[in-house]
Amino acid sequence: MAVKRTVKLEQLRNIGIMAHIDAGKTTTTERILFYTGKSYKIGEVHDGAATMDWMVQEQERGITITSAATTCAWGDTTINIIDTPGHVDFTVEVERSLRVLDGAVTVFDGVAGVEPQSETVWRQADKYGVPRICFVNKLDRTGASFEYSFNSIRERLTPDAVRAQLPIGLEDQLEGVIDLVEMRGIVWKGEDLGASFEYVEVPAELKDEAETYRAELMERVAESDEELTEYYLENGELTTEQLKDGLRRATINNQIVPVFCGSAFKNKGVQPLLDAVVDYLPSPLEVPPIKGTDPKSGNEIIREPADDQPFAALAFKVMTDPYVGTLTFARVYSGTLEAGSHVVNVTKDSKQRVGRILQMHANHREENVACMTGDIVALVGLKDTTTGDTITTPDSRVLLESMEFPDPVIEIA
Ligand code: GDP
Description:
One of its GO terms (molecular function) is translation elongation factor activity. By secondary structure, the chain is of the alpha+beta class.
């Protein structure tokens, strides 16, 4: 097929942002969309056709209720944010979205630390082996404590949590963060959206603390890999490059959960968090290939994440949209598909045609001629498709590993 790839698979991240309600998931997501987008403005409601309707609806209801996906770019990396609802009533939706993402950012309230729903979503992510990084948010709040929050993560969620940053200042004195991998400070000038930041030396009064925690991070990374262990034992330390690469591997392998911090609301820490998504969470090539079964023989089929494999995608959300009709959000696990192609819904054993392929951005929809391995797209034209269904080309059927998805379609007013 003559479909040309524009984004390298290594430079793709399919992530979710998970949190207890009110920890700041929406604020963090909005800031990410701001920093990765050019024209998106917080608080501005765009005209219907061009807007992601779910954002408007969510703003009205005040909680995150849907599980759509938004595509954005950070440097050379394309990031698909799969929206994981934070409200406890929607744990099935959380599970559904966890199924299709490759990594997650877990957001915590820097005053409250781990809260009951943080535990719920954490256990769900454990179930699917989703690699995670943590973001201790709201460090500008009175009573905020990075240490308290960090310890609650380590004690209540995972002993594998390790500090990757430390805050510089706290509460209304929050100035920035220390990056323990690169051993440098990142300090903001101002608190507004456009505020600039600069890299600085680690402040003298925090140097000892930073060195202690960097040593701990290094030890944990060294322990995660035989070659690194050997180097570490011989040299007493790792190089920064080894530390960074090792942390990436250990995070992807669920051996380490690095913890970052800041205040999304005060626009401090979100750009380094985006760097961390790129640096430490996996591309579709770095997660185990998806398994499925041959619908006729029941034999196991493994689909490698590659464009030259037969097309296979999993529908994870069906929405009706007043402008386009039914949107079927799907994760492409292998192969490519051009708009206008005939496909089969293997789960329902029905022939279908994909009329259009859309990608949702913060403030516009993009119509694509095709979708490729790793992509998260909205397919238009599928009938009788519900969440959890497998979509393939007619001559290469596979039933992808799926889970029970109870509720069917969300109507958007
Ligand atoms: P969600 O329920 O997890 O999506 O949380 P929201 O993003 O809606 O945030 C809940 C409340 O906390 C809102 O009033 C936000 O303005 C506020 N908030 C979010 N992030 C921060 C932060 O970094 N600092 C402070 N002080 N407030 C924040």
